[in-house]
Design goal:
The structure holds 2 protein chains of 2 kinds. Chain A is mainly alpha-helical. Chain A has helices at residues 5-11, 18-23, 28-35, 37-48, 51-67, 71-74, 78-93, 95-104, 110-116, 120-137, 142-152, 158-165, 169-188. In chain A, helix 4 (37-48) runs parallel beside helix 7 (78-93). Chain B is built from 7 helices and 20 strands. Chain B has helices spanning 17-27, 32-43, 47-60, 91-106, 245-249, 263-271, 299-309, and strands spanning 2-3, 15-16, 114-117, 124-127, 133-136, 141-146, 151-157, 159-163, 172-176, 179-183, 187-192, 198-204, 207-211, 228-232, 235-240, 255-262, 278-281, 289-295, 312-316, 322-326. In chain B, strand 19 (312-316) and strand 20 form a beta hairpin. Classes of the chains: A mainly alpha, B alpha+beta.
Chain lengths: 191, 327
């Protein structure tokens, strides 16, 4: 066999079991992962922050890709697909860890702020951000707040929320998106 | 960038595209056409970040503390009952934003003196401070110590694949019980063998090995892709080139494949991924060759397959051990 790394893929013998190549190092999952690694690292860092959680998420992402049958055909839109997998991963897999990390950081005094940021200007701008987000969030309508709360905290399906609030599922979804959008605007307009 | 949305039942205004996509993806009902649009949207600058912010808020909003410090008060029962307002509701959200920013700023400082470990059957990916990655296999121990001048890690036990970021100013060194491996920028794998020996397999780039103490038995020639080397403290013991190194790295995808290995070797390999003691009794079966796939974490399924394909019986003993005999 050729030891040259470029030649290796072409030289590799036909596998006895084709699945082993599909999920293996040379396979599509690995190439896909490596190609979008930076994007996905950026995503998980921004969402999870804790380097250990980020590493766990990256591994889990890779394993989910490697285990996915028909990956290549499911993956016409690679980035969209990866973000979909990553979204599901964040939404279900790391919830417990997330709660833990949130608990660790609920105190919000000036010491915490100064410890997290490198300079006083950073801390001041953080404080400004907080005030602005709080004001923005107070403008959520009752519908938005209830729909969002029931769906996210009570884990009610859209159908259940719809029955509870006696509005259509479509409205529930819109309220939820709207609430998320307001919160995100408050965050995004600041950074 | 906004998506206008219509009105129905209540006041609905415009929503951000990121929120629109995040909710849709979370609900899991994107059509093929929508996936193509989502892809296009993600490729525009800044949108990945907005999407991540939504993910962050979505997760944050999933815990009661986001809403209040006493969640029991706010569970809405009647239609029209508002989630209680008040100062407490915002405490956790405020904190989550602090952490978001603080975490990003602190990132470059992390990475010194870290310890990573996998238990038997576990695999994990470790992303180091310089974005080099280490994939740890079952039952492995890795210590990381980065400084301004050097990147040092120690593989105390087990097996790992290293993807090293090139940095001529800061050499990357892996210490093992048998010696030190030095790297410029590369991918390679290390595996602890019996008797304090270590197997090095180079997949990309260039590597040198110093067996024993860094000053001791001298340094190997430069090794390149496709080379595999066994070494211990006293020196280099076996060198092989033209090896299919990729097959030695395959475990990182959660799969170990066998193509014609002897039965006892296969059982030993699978045994690395379980705490159960596997005993093989059947000397006359030692020449049987096994081809197949072992999925990490599915030891029992693999042994079942073995019993179905070969004249062996798999017996689960009362003490939790596994006995493989001729059937």
């Amino acid at each position: 066999m050729n030891a040259d790394s470029e030649g290796r893929a072409a030289d590799c013998p036909p596998a006895e079991n084709p699945r082993s190549v599909e999920v293996g190092e040379k396979g599509f999952a690995f190439r896909l992962y490596m190609q979008h690694r930076e994007s996905m690292l950026g995503f998980f860092r921004r969402v999870l922050r804790d380097p250990e959680d980020v590493a766990d998420a990256m591994q889990e992402l890779y394993l989910r890709l490697a285990r996915q049958t028909d990956l290549e055909s499911r993956c016409q839109n690679q980035k969209a697909y990866l973000f979909t997998v990553a979204t599901n991963l964040v939404n279900d897999g790391l919830r417990k860890k997330y709660v833990r990390s949130l608990d660790l950081h609920v105190s919000l005094d000036s010491e915490t702020l100064e410890a997290s940021g490198p300079c006083p200007e950073e801390s001041e701008s953080l404080r400004q951000q907080l005030r602005l987000v709080q004001r923005t969030c107070d403008t959520l309508s009752d519908g938005e707040r209830q729909a969002f709360f029931m769906h996210r905290v009570n884990r009610m399906t859209y159908r259940e929320v719809s029955a509870e609030l006696r509005v259509s599922e479509r409205t529930v979804r819109r309220w939820v998106v709207q609430a998320l959008s307001r919160l995100q605007d408050a965050l995004g307009g600041l950074s | 960038m906004m998506i206008a949305s219509g009105r129905e039942d209540g006041a609905i205004g415009p929503v951000s595209e990121a929120a629109y996509w995040y909710e849709k993806v979370s609900a899991g009902d994107l059509s093929d056409t929508e996936m193509a649009r989502f892809e296009e949207w993600l490729l525009e600058p800044g949108n990945e970040t907005d999407y991540a912010d939504c993910a962050r808020l979505w997760s944050a909003a999933g815990v009661p503390e986001f809403w209040t410090d006493s969640p029991a008060e706010v569970v809405p029962v009647d239609r029209g009952a508002a989630v209680s307002r008040g100062y407490g509701r915002w405490v956790a959200l405020a904190a989550s934003i602090v952490v978001l920013v603080g975490g990003a700023l602190l990132w470059p400082l992390l990475g010194a003196g870290e310890h990573y470990q996998t238990v038997v059957g576990e695999q994990r990916l470790v992303v180091l401070a310089d974005e080099s990655t280490v994939f740890l296999n079952t039952d492995s121990v890795l210590d990381v110590s980065y400084s301004g001048k050097r990147r040092q890690v120690r593989l105390a036990r087990g097996e790992a694949i290293f993807d090293v970021r090139p940095d001529p100013e800061r050499p990357f060194e892996v210490q093992t019980g048998a010696g030190t491996v030095r790297v410029v920028g590369t991918r390679f794998a290390l595996r602890s063998l019996e008797n304090e020996r270590v197997r090095l397999a180079v997949s990309e780039g260039r590597v040198t090995v110093s067996p024993g103490d860094a000053t001791g038995a001298g340094t190997s020639p430069v090794l390149g892709a496709g080379e595999v080397l066994d070494f211990d403290r006293s020196g280099l013991s076996l060198r092989d080139s033209g090896v299919d190194v990729e097959s030695l790295l395959q475990w990182r995808s959660g799969v170990v494949s066998f193509s014609g290995e002897a039965l006892p070797a296969v059982i030993r390999e699978v045994g690395r991924y379980t705490n159960k003691r596997i005993e093989f009794r059947g000397e006359h079966l030692s020449d049987l060759r096994v081809s197949g796939i072992f999925r990490v974490g599915e030891v029992d399924a693999f042994l079942e397959g073995l019993a179905a394909a070969f004249p062996v019986a798999v017996v689960h003993a009362a003490d939790g051990g596994i006995l493989i005999t001729a059937s």
